[in-house]
Amino acid sequence: MPAAAYSLLATAGKARRGRLTLTHGAVETPAFMPVGTQGTVKSLTPVDLRDAGVQIVLSNTYHLWVRPGHERIGKLGGLHRFMDWDGPILTDSGGYQVFSLKEMNKVTEEGVKFRSPHDGQWRMLSPEKAIEIQETLGVDVAMAFDECVEWPASEARTRDGMNRTTRWLQRCMAARQHADRTALFGIVQGGTHESLRVEHAATLADLNLDGYAIGGLSVGEPREELVRFTEFTAPLLPASRVRYLMGVGYPWDIVDAVLAGVDMFDCVIPTRSARFGQAFTSSGRVTIKNTRYRDDARPLDENCACYACARFSRAYLRHLFTSNEILAPRLLSLHNVTFYQHLLSRVRAAIEDSATTGSSALADLHRLVSAWNRQADD
Ligand SMILES: [Zn+2]
User: Is 180 a catalytic site residue?
Assistant: First the structure.
């Protein structure tokens, strides 16, 4: 039995309503994964995540490897037990992080050599190591170790990175010991070069992976390029497998990508924005520190059922922020994560509605969310 099974339940245009069944449960798609870099979605407990409607969380191979170490987590019962999250977990391969350590990395065919910023030790992250770490953590989905090519990059440079990504993917596949419980997703590269995207998507489709991610986007390119290459790449991926757009994004980016046929997303935006006092609401963005909320008795979002919105006023949340209280980022994180999950649940309902009744529910939701991008509260 493969560790991941995707079933397509309904379609509306290119948008897909599906279900991804993993070792620790099913994920209704389209789905958004909050990011728990260090084995925790910052300031939120697993109970908070469940209450917010979170189905699957993302954690980071690189961070857990360098501290506290994957072997230690494995001996303590695996990542699910360690962080007390019994739902599905996806980990990135660590590639993005080691490639970000600009001064420290040396890329060879073997892998990436880097000096750990924690202890100064030299380490090598390779396809085999990335699989060993993720399988020892016991996650539901492991991402293949890929070469992250910077943006912008020439076609020749992008092609080299793409071909190395394919060779590394084949090494990842060969290194797997627990294919029955940890699924493996491949990552389609090719940057902003259409012919390379076509070529790499075809190469990876032949490898019959558990799922497919669109990589090499959300790396600093303009938004128009993100939208264009998501629309271009998604239909190139096998229709029978789940499609994941890595590192995206704002609510409007997500809805755009759903309309292009993408099923899964992850991003630090809801939690990072919360720590900076930014909330996403059904009437647009709210910067809670803004003086205008000083006497505002309304909840952050009148259409949100989260604990922060049920119990507290904007005036109180603003007071917590301006007083640097630790409850402030926690309550805003709870709200933003709930807001994202609620948005995705609306997206799923709109796809179903549009698919079964031919209604304009999905187009209406797209219009509404796109308008949030243009709205600002200051
Ligand atoms: Zn809320």
Answer: no
* Cis peptide bond upstream of 249, omega within 30: yes
Q: Which helix (H) or strand (E) segment is 372 a member of?
A: helix 361-374
The burial class, CB within 10 Å (0-12 / 13-18 / 19+), for 138 is buried
Calpha distance 127→171 (Å, rounded)? 6
> Pick the catalytic residue: 48, 92, 146, 301?
92
Give the least confident one: 82-91, 204-213, 220-229.
Answer: 220-229
Could you read off the pLDDT of 142-190 as tens digits, one per residue? Answer: 999 999 888 899 999 999 999 999 999 999 999 999 999 999 999 999 9
Domains and CATH numbers, the chain: 5-265 (3.20.20.105), 274-374 (no CATH)
Contacts of range 253-258, beta carbons closer than 8 Å, 24 or more positions apart: 253/223, 253/226, 253/227, 254/30, 254/32, 254/343, 254/344, 254/347, 255/343, 255/347, 255/365, 255/366, 255/369, 255/370, 256/227, 256/230, 256/366, 256/370, 257/230, 258/15, 258/30, 258/347, 258/351
- Cα of 318 vs centre of ligand 1, distance in Å, is 14
Active site residue 266: yes
* Beta carbons within 10 angstroms of residue 152's beta carbon: 13
85-91 mean pLDDT: 98
- Three-class SS of residue 143? strand
- pTM for this model (two decimals): 0.97
Sign of CA dihedral 363, 345, 215, 189: negative
Angstrom distance (rounded) from CA 61 to CA 272: 19
- Rounded to the nearest angstrom, the distance between the alpha carbon of 281 and the centre of ligand 1 is 8
Per DSSP, 145 falls in state: P
Residue 207 near residue 173 (C-beta atoms within 8 A): yes
- Could you say which of 48, 253, 266, 353 is catalytic? 266
Strands (E), 93-191: 106-107, 112-115, 122-125, 141-143, 183-188
